[in-house]
Structure formats: C-alpha cells, structure tokens
Write a structure and sequence with these properties.
The complex is a heterodimer of chains A (377) and B (531). Chain A has helices at 4-21, 25-49, 54-66, 69-94, 102-120, 127-160, 164-184, 218-237, 239-249, 251-256, 261-288, 300-310, 318-338, 343-370. With 377 residues, chain A is mainly alpha-helical. The two termini of chain A are 13 Å apart. In chain B, strand 1 (10-19) and strand 2 (22-32) form a beta hairpin. Classes of the chains: A mainly alpha (377), B alpha/beta (531).
Chain lengths: 377, 531
C-alpha cells in the first residue's frame, strides 16, 4: 500500500492508522485510560517545572474529584451535563452530521425551560404534584425549543446545502446574544441586580436524594442515563437509527436503500437538538434554579464534542467519557480554590488530557476521510 | 520464447507465500522478458496480487528467490524494490488529490537546491519523461489531481514511477476503473513503454485484455501457475478453461418459457444528468414477466441515468414509469423497493454495500421497512442474521461468515451477496446494472445462471451491460442505447456482434446510413425509437 520514498513512512503511518481504526472497544478503553494517565504525567511535569509540588497537586486532583461527598456531588453534576450534551453530539456525529451548535441549543433549551416553568406555575397547584408537572412540561418545552433551534440548520443543510458546521457555530453566537439580551431586560426578575430571570418556585427544584448538594440531584443523573439508554436503543435497534447510522457511514448506500437523505439530516439535527435542550433544562433546574447571562453558564456544549469523540460517538461510551470529564472539571474547581497552583495551569492540564485522550479518537474519525489507513474504506 | 540471451527483467523462482493455513502462492515460477508485456491472469483470489506484492517488497516470501536483471535480490520494503527499478501502479491510486500533478510526481524525490525544492528542474524532468512517451501528463502539471479524469491520474502514477527510475512496472488491474476509450489509451501507453525497453506486468482477470495487450500470459489458479503461453498462440476459450479449470460457456441456451404480461413500462422518459444536461432523451421501454431486456451501449450514453430514474434514485424530467400499470414516476426510492423493484447497482462498493458493516447489517440494507426484519420500527437482528446466513449459503459467498466486514470481501463475493439480497426481496422487477463488472469468472457464471433461473421463474429483468457477450447470452431482446436514446431494439437470438457494434456507434437509425446493415428488428419489440 505504499510507494517507495516516502513509502516506508507512509506504510508505517498506514499500519498505525489501521491498528487504531480496527481497535476493539476494549483496546479503546485501554487507550483512553493510558492516555489519561500519560496526560496527568505530563501535566505533573509541567506543574513541577512551574515550581509546585506535583505529588501535592496529584493529591488535590483526586481529592477534588472524589475526596468527599461534596467533591463527588460536584463530579457527578458535571458528569450529568457532559453525558447529556455528549449524547447530543454523538447522535449527530454518528449520522455524519456535524452539529457544533449543541451549546446554543443547550442555552435555548435552558432559558425556555425556566420561562415555561415561571409562566405555567401560577396556573398549576403548588406542591409535589405541581412541581413534577412543571418539571415535565418545562423539560418538554426545552426539548422542543432545542430541537427546533437545531432543526433550522438541519433544514438549511438538507434543502439549501448550507454547511452545518458554519451555521451551527453562528447560531451559537445568536443564541448567547439573544438570550443575554433577554435576561438583561425583558426576562429580568423584578428587583434583580444581576441579569438573571426570577427563580423558579422551590417546589419545582429537583430533590438531592443521596447528596446534600444545592446543585446536584440523583434525579438529574437518572435523566441523563435514561436518555443514554433510549438513544442507544434507537440507534442500534430501530429502523430510524439504522437509517441515521448508515447515512453517517456511507450516504450513497443509505440513499440506495431508500433513506431520504434530506429528511434524515433534519431528523438527526432535531433529535440532537432535543437532547441538548434537555441538557439545558437539567442545567437550569438542577444547577441554577433560574437563568443567567448565557455567556457565563459554562461551555458544556463545546466540551461535549471532546466527550463524544472520546466515546467514539457511541452513546454508551459517553457515560464513562462524561464521568472522566466531570471528574477533571471537578478537580479543576477544587484546585482553583484550595491550592496556589494558578488556574491557568489547571486548565492547561485539562486541555492536555483532552488532547491525549481525544486526539486518537479524532484521528479515528478523520483518518479514513483523509485517506489514511491501508484498506480502501 | 527465451530466445534472447539477456537475463529476464524479473525472474521469480519457487515463490511460496502462506497466510496462516492459506497458501496464497505455491511454488510460483515467473519470468518477465525485457521489453515485453506479461499478463498475470487469474480469478479473484488466485494469488496474482500476492505474487506481485512479494516482488514489490510488501510481503516476505516463505520460500523462493527473486532475481532482477539476473541478480538475486531481497526486498524488505517497496523502497528496496523501487531502488532496484521495480515500480507498482496500484488499483487504487496513491496520489494526493488536493496537490498538483507535478507535486505528486516528485513527492519524496524532490530535486533540491539549498534545501528548497528546485521546481524548475523538477518541471523540466517530468515534462521530459511525459513527452518522451507521448503522455499528455505534461499538459496537466499544474492541475490538481482531484480535477483530473481517472485515465490521466493513472498516467500520472506511471510517470511518477518512471520519475523514480522504474524499469519494471507492475500494473495491478489497471483497466478496472477505466472507460473503454481510456483502456485503449492505456494499451497505447503500454506499447510505448515496452518500445522504450521497459518491462510490464499486467495483472488482470479479463481474457480479451490479456490477449490484446500482452506478449505472454501466465495463468494462476489457487496460487499455482497453470501455464505460461504466448498470447499469439492461445484463445480466450483456452485461457478461460485454464482459469476456472473448465470451459466457460458464453453460449446462449435455448429457453423453454415464454415472456408474459408487461411489468415495467417506461414511456417518453427524459432524465437529466448530474450537470443538468439531459442524458436520457425520450426512452420507451417495456419489460415483461419472464423476460430479460438487455440494454447495450458504450458506457456514458445515459444508461446510468435511465436505471436511476427507474429505480427512484433520480428524478424524472418528463415521461412516466409504470409498474404493473400503476404510476410510480414520482414515487420515492423506498416506495419503489416496497412495490417490488429490486436493484443491483452499478457501484456495489459505494451503493450496494456499506463497506464498514458486516454482512448481517448489510442484509438489512434496503430492507428497513420489510417484515420480518423490521416490525413496527424495531429491528429484529436475529432475522437479519438468518437472512445474511441464507444469502451466504445460497450464493456461496466467501468467506462464509456473516460477521465478515463487507469491505473485506473480494469484488465477486460482494456482488454475489448484493445479488442474493436483492433477489430475496421477492421483486417483480430486477434492475441489474453491470452486475458482473470486476467479478471473477466463476462468480460471473453463477450470477448469469441465477438471472436466467429467475427469468424462467417469471421475473422481469432489466439488464444493463457494456459486455456484448453477456448481453447476447442473457437477453431476450436487446435495446441499444446511444446518446440518451434507444437506437433500436433487436432480437438477441438473431443479432450479430457486428450489428450490435454498429448500433452502439449510433448508426442504424432511420435517416442514418447504413440502415440496411442493421439487424432485423424484433417483431415483438415494444422498444424502438421515440421521435
């Protein structure tokens, strides 16, 4: 499969590419674990070079991620959001649609959820029954809003040929800008000094159940895992999922088999956006209890791309990947507060982990398209 | 044949190569005379490519010796082979598409001056090679490879090898991706190369090509050499017998059943091609129960667009398509599958199979709305697996493993799987587009037999091919397509190759000369010409 000079180098690259492309699930888990360890090692070297105690730092990482109930709750909170947004990305990537707009759909879903709950609350009874009803309605509204916001670039791609990567990135900015304006003005809670909406009623908030945490609830994690289960079944056991995955693998074969390519693109984007909307709802209800300026709500929708790539765009794989990213973010938060290691350094180390862990997966996705790998794929 | 006293350009002696238990090459002897074309002929999996991969340093042989120019050599890598003057042109081109022709040719061997690429020298050298062999590559030096036709890309590959000093060129199934015109051009190029003293190994499984282009032919079967013969002293029939170990019958067999009612009916069909140009310009055609309508013609005369319009993959600009009298002109692809139009596509690798899927998942392709594989949107993977196993067994797909990745199968086995799956739809109409292209002879015969058996069972088959012998063998009627129209529809039993050839060149229509040379029209034909 190669040709003289640089044939040998190319052959070696192809062999390595093949090995990575053919890696089994188990091998990928090994690769991911080894990459995380390696990234931490390099990170520790950087920490040491910057004049801090690497062992103390390592201790802080574990303490921050799993050290006590507080740390664990924080890890699970981040993980819940990474899992939901990660699945949103994975669904689209699997089907060959590059939805980079999960962040925007997440923001739109979140604010719509809060507004729906605030508007509907007066019409419903208070207490547990009303709370559950409002949660369900708010989440449904968020899913619809997120889905609609993602369907827009889907339609543009399917029927006008607009590149979804560009349109979804643009729509992220628009979502953040418009929602930012809304919480600043029209939706601002009365008497709020900060640009926030009103708080949702207390009886609507999720019960913490096992953890005494103001911003994590086992219910939220359960929602995330339920979404993973549903998506996984849809992708592997239904005709819709088969159509979507086949489109992602080989569009012409999908068309040959009777898949309507345009409709599948729109359906994929809508599904992906709905999941992102649910993620937004969980964030709004579980973490915040109101909605604030979206430029400050965290970049879950972007980090989710790395989460999904790490999981090889497999909905089930998103769970461990989301947990890893949750733990790292949680550790970062802890270290930022409790140690004199500069925050920038921690972000850099998180970045290293992303690089080490996600790069092989990114390669897996991109390599066949770029023509690497021995086989003609 | 060994009249010259010079040592052969390449001599392989007793080459044996095993992969696990499989013996891919078993004591193969092979000698390539200088300045000649030596065809390596064999079915898919007979060991042709393995043998040449040993020569090219991609595999280490388990036994045997390689001599180049009389000198024993060992090649650990393609680079070693290249240094000894052996180049290989792969079936899938090894070119960087976004780069220019010049950049591709010199890649890795750039002439440098003070550490910078000396483009002027490179340009001169490459242009010199190109003009020495009268290639048209020199005119395209600054064109990007992705903008070029496959034929020119292949010549770029050849120039690349020559630039690296190749004296011996191995061409791995070079005609597989080419149109007939480009094949002609390639044979000219090969003649020019041998005239200049280069030696060529021409890997193929096409008998006529081996006879046309080669001086000598070595036939491989199951990893062993059957014989080496001079092309002038042999015939297609003899080569075919050597390849498959038995006579391949390309003769028609008299049929025992008669066609029935019309099933597929197209009227005044007009279809646009990818660039908006009308490629089908008013075609009427009818296929009846138990009938094979062959569509002959030089590739690119609208056959692809016609087939895609009938199968629902391409919109119809004007005209109607009817299935058993019901209008399906605007029906989606999926509805047409459900209504009973099966389709063996021209490009099985891109359309007919998902390369990354195993055969079980490929068995579901096109069956997404068909019970028992899918019930109320839920896929029954056990049923799909049974289906895949049935196809594999009934169509003798190798390896007989439904978990094998489709992309890992040879072309013939891929095609057998596609044909098997499409027939299992229990269709009313089968559209088969070049179903034996790139398929080994054993599989060709198998597919032919299946199509004939299905016809006898009453299936209506629209069969598109550019191979005259199979058109004549299988078809009841032959419609000849030229520039988007059916020039004529003739009785396959009575038409001759010469007559078909004339029709395919667009002659024989009313008003064109020489109409009187044309075959007698089929009296029962519902095809023919639309004004």
């Amino acid at each position: 499969m190669s040709d003289a000079d640089p044939g040998r180098a190319r052959a070696a690259v192809d062999r390595a590419a093949d090995r990575m492309l053919d890696a089994s699930v188990l091998q990928r888990v090994v690769v991911a674990t080894a990459s995380t360890a390696l990234a931490l090692l390099v990170g520790l070297a950087v920490v040491a070079a910057a004049g801090y105690d690497p062992l103390l730092f390592l201790g802080n990482v574990f303490e921050g991620a799993f050290g006590d109930e507080n740390a664990l709750a924080r890890t699970l909170k981040f993980a819940t959001l990474f899992i939901l947004t990660g699945v949103a990305v994975a669904v689209a990537f699997r089907a060959g649609v590059f939805n980079i707009g999960v962040q925007g759909q997440f923001v739109v879903g979140g604010v719509v959820c809060v507004v729906a709950i605030l508007r509907l609350a007066p019409a419903l009874p208070t207490g547990t029954a009303g709370g559950v009803a409002l949660l369900v309605l708010g989440t449904a509204a968020a899913a619809l809003a997120g889905g609609a916001y993602a369907a827009l670039p889907g339609v543009l791609k399917a029927y006008a040929g607009a590149n979804e990567i560009i349109t979804t990135i643009m729509l992220n900015f628009i979502a953040v800008g418009v929602v930012g304006y809304l919480v600043e003005g029209p939706l601002r809670g009365e008497g709020n000094r900060a640009p926030n909406t009103e708080r949702i009623p207390e009886y609507v908030e999720l019960p913490a159940v096992a953890f005494d945490s103001p911003d994590f609830s086992v219910v939220g994690l359960a929602v995330a895992l339920a979404v993973v289960a549903v998506v996984s079944v849809v992708m592997t056991r239904t005709d819709v999922g088969y159509d979507m995955v086949t489109s992602g693998h080989q569009e012409r074969a999908a068309t040959y088999s009777g898949v309507d390519a345009a409709r599948t693109v729109v359906a994929t984007m809508t599904l992906s956006g709905m999941i992102a909307g649910i993620a937004g709802a969980v964030f709004a209800v579980m973490v915040q209890g109101y909605y604030s300026d979206p430029s400050g709500v965290g970049t879950y929708g972007f980090d989710a791309i790395a989460v999904s790539l790490l999981a090889a765009n497999n909905p089930l794989g998103v769970v461990p990947a989301g947990l890893l990213f949750g733990a790292l973010d949680s550790a970062g938060t802890h270290i930022g507060i409790n140690s004199d290691v500069p925050v920038q350094l921690i972000d850099g180390i998180v970045g290293l982990v992303v690089l080490f862990v996600a790069a092989p997966e990114l390669f897996r996705v991109v390599a066949p398209r770029a023509g690497f790998g021995g086989d003609d794929r | 044949m060994d009249a010259s006293d010079a040592p052969p350009a390449v001599r392989l002696e007793g080459i044996t190569k095993r992969f696990g238990d499989v013996v891919a090459n078993d004591g193969v002897d092979f000698a390539l005379e200088k300045g000649s074309v030596h065809a390596l002929l064999g079915e898919n999996g007979s060991g042709k490519t393995t043998l040449m991969s040993v020569l090219y340093g991609l595999y280490d042989q388990d036994a045997g010796t390689i001599c180049v120019d009389g000198e024993p050599r060992t090649f650990d890598s393609p680079r070693d082979a290249m240094d000894a003057g052996v180049g290989m042109i792969h079936q899938h081109f090894q070119l960087v598409d976004p780069m220019t022709v010049l950049q591709n040719v010199i890649l890795g061997h750039e002439p440098t001056e003070n550490g910078l690429v000396d483009e002027a020298t490179a340009r001169e050298d490459v242009a010199a090679i190109s003009s020495r062999y009268d290639f048209d590559v020199g005119r395209h030096l600054d064109a990007r490879v992705r903008d070029l036709d496959l034929g020119i890309r292949q010549r770029v590959e050849i120039v690349k090898s020559l630039y690296r000093g190749a004296e011996v060129l191995v061409l791995d199934e070079p005609t597989a991706v080419l149109t007939p015109q480009e094949v002609e051009r390639l044979f000219d190029v090969m003649a020019e190369l041998t005239a200049a003293g280069r030696s060529l190994v021409f890997i193929t499984h096409k008998l006529d090509e081996a006879l046309t282009a080669a001086d000598r032919v070595t036939v491989l079967r199951d990893g062993e050499v059957v014989d080496t013969v001079a092309a002038a002293d042999t015939t297609e029939r003899e080569l075919a017998r050597m390849m498959v170990g038995r006579e391949v019958l390309f003769d028609r067999e008299p049929r025992e059943t008669a066609p029935g009612d019309p099933v597929l009916d197209a009227e005044g069909l007009r279809v646009r091609g990818d660039r908006g140009v009308e490629r089908v310009r008013g075609v009427d055609c009818t296929v009846r129960e138990g009938e094979i309508l062959g569509v002959a013609g030089v590739q690119g005369n609208g056959q692809t667009e016609l087939v895609e319009a009938i199968t629902g993959l391409r919109p119809v600009a004007a005209g109607t398509v009817r299935l058993r009298g019901g209008d399906v002109t605007g029906a989606s692809r999926r509805r047409r599958i459900e209504e009973g139009i099966a389709y063996v596509p021209e490009d099985r690798q891109a359309e007919g199979l998902v390369q990354d899927y195993d055969l079980v998942r490929n068995a579901l392709l096109g069956n997404q709305t068909v019970e028992p594989y899918v019930n109320r949107h839920v896929v029954d993977w056990a049923a799909a697996r049974d289906h895949a196993e049935d196809i594999v067994r009934e169509y003798d797909v190798q390896p007989p493993n439904p978990r094998a990745r489709a992309g890992s199968l040879s072309g013939g086995n891929q095609q057998k799987f596609v044909v098997g799956r499409e027939i299992a739809h229990d269709p009313d109409v089968m559209v088969a587009s070049h179903p034996t292209r790139g398929v080994d002879i054993g599989s060709i015969e198998f597919i032919h037999d299946r199509l004939l058996a299905l016809r006898d069972e009453g299936l209506a088959i629209l069969f598109v091919s550019s191979k005259l012998e199979e058109i004549r063998k299988l078809s009841d009627r032959v419609a000849v397509m030229y520039e988007g129209e059916f020039v004529d529809t003739v009785d396959a039993e009575r038409v001759t190759d010469e007559e078909l050839g004339l029709l395919m060149a667009g002659r024989g229509r009313d008003g064109d000369e020489p109409a009187d040379e044309v075959a007698e029209r089929a009296t029962d034909g519902s095809g023919g010409v639309s004004p």
